[in-house]
């Protein structure tokens, strides 16, 4: 199998029309985490029709298709796409818009799935490579760690890989440009929560009770000191508050006895992650003690930082360059503050994760206006094909 430029693949109008139709079909029927029944049925049927060996059931709705090259070779790689949608009401007015109220493909997983299916078709038609490719279609990427669940249920025991690769679209960037970096590329994503407990009391007589809202104010103003004074200047950490609840809107004259706060923490280094967890708790306890209140603190580790392996990053850059040319590949892209559960796979197996420009006019992901740009399908498919050539050629 020779390397194939994206422009060459773009000329295959019949192929692209079919893959685009599949993408839009998936978009019209969004399914959220671990409920991707119709999507996994579509994926499994498509792969079976290509003659691939199919395994179903990892993380409930996961699908793995296996294709062996016709050339002698022992090396095995995994190519992963995510399938789940989000709980968002779509506002795109497309002919293929979501037909499920309150759910939509607002992150482009429909496009990721379609591009990997397209690559599977092309490789099945011309398996001139030495080794084996596992096509991994993963459920539940959005916040519930479907990749971790697949691993826990035996993904790499059933399908050992020498390397594993992932890809995600990137809105607000030029269509068909690739972005990657070696080392930490995406942040760890964790949730912290705090319950401040006082006695509450009458709003006109605060001296007769203890006020957890005062502890809350002290705590919130101190949070910024973690990144500013505890994290080294060449590293970074983001700590944000996403939810606060206390009292009742109909009782403004009552000081609440309880305040609940939840937020997110984003870091790139394990030691910074540990530091942030420790310092949030210390500041919470200090603020509570200052105002004669009590604090219950919990730090929930969700997704680790996504760390690309050096050798596999070099291979990913080579594959992207073969697809679009060196001028459209950024091998030293900026780190991304979002999180991605492909990080779990990279903890278990060497590999790399790359981003593909979805268009400068693209709405941002996780918004009601977002739509995957079908014009980038040939770029994504050609990247997968060239990556197989680089790895197994």
Automatic annotation (TrEMBL):
Residue span(s) of domain Peptidase M20 dimerisation: 191-283
GO MF term (any one): metal ion binding
The protein's name: Hippurate hydrolase
Keyword NAD included in the entry's annotation: no
Organism classification: Bacteria, Pseudomonadati, Pseudomonadota, Alphaproteobacteria, Hyphomicrobiales
Name of one Pfam family that matches: Peptidase_M20
Keyword ATP-binding annotated: no
Residues bound to Mn(2+): 107, 109, 142, 168, 366
CDD domains, per the entry: M20_Acy1-like
Swiss-Prot/TrEMBL keywords: Hydrolase, Manganese, Metal-binding
Cofactor: Mn(2+)
Co-factor binding comment: The Mn(2+) ion enhances activity.
């Amino acid at each position: 199998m020779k390397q194939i430029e994206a422009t060459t693949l773009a000329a295959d109008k019949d192929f692209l029309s079919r893959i685009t139709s599949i993408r839009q079909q998936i978009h019209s029927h969004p399914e959220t985490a671990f409920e991707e029944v119709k999507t996994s049925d579509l994926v499994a049927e498509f792969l079976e029709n290509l003659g691939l060996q199919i395994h179903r059931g990892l993380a409930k709705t996961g699908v793995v298709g296996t294709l062996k090259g016709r050339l002698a070779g022992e090396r095995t790689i995994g190519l992963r796409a995510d399938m789940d949608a989000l709980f968002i009401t779509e506002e795109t007015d497309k002919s293929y818009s979501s037909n499920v109220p309150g759910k939509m493909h607002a992150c482009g997983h429909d496009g990721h799935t379609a591009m990997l299916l397209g690559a599977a078709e092309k490789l099945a038609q011309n398996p001139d490579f030495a080794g084996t490719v596992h096509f991994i279609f993963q459920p539940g990427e959005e916040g519930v760690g479907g990749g971790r669940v697949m691993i826990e249920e035996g993904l790499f025991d059933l399908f050992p890989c020498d390397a594993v690769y992932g890809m995600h679209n990137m809105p607000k960037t030029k269509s068909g440009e690739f972005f990657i970096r070696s080392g930490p590329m995406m942040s760890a994503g964790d949730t912290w929560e705090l319950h401040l407990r006082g006695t509450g009391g009458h709003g006109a007589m605060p001296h007769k009770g203890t006020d957890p809202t005062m502890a809350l104010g002290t705590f919130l103003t101190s949070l910024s000191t973690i990144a500013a004074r505890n994290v080294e200047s060449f590293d970074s950490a983001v700590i944000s508050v996403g939810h606060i609840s206390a009292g009742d809107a109909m009782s403004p004259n009552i000081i609440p006895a309880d305040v609940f706060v939840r937020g997110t923490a984003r870091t790139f280094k394990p030691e910074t992650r540990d530091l942030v967890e420790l310092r949030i708790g210390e500041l919470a306890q200090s603020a509570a003690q200052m105002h004669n209140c009590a604090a219950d603190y919990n730090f929930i580790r969700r997704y680790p930082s996504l760390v690309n392996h050096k050798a596999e990053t070099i291979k990913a850059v080579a594959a992207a360059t073969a697809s679009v040319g060196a001028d459209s590949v950024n091998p030293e892209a900026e780190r991304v503050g979002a999180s991605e559960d492909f990080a779990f796979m990279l903890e278990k197996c060497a590999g790399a994760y790359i981003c593909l420009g979805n268009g400068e006019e693209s709405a941002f992901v996780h918004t009601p206006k977002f739509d995957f740009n079908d014009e980038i399908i040939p770029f994504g498919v050609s990247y997968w094909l060239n990556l197989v050539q680089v790895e197994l050629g």
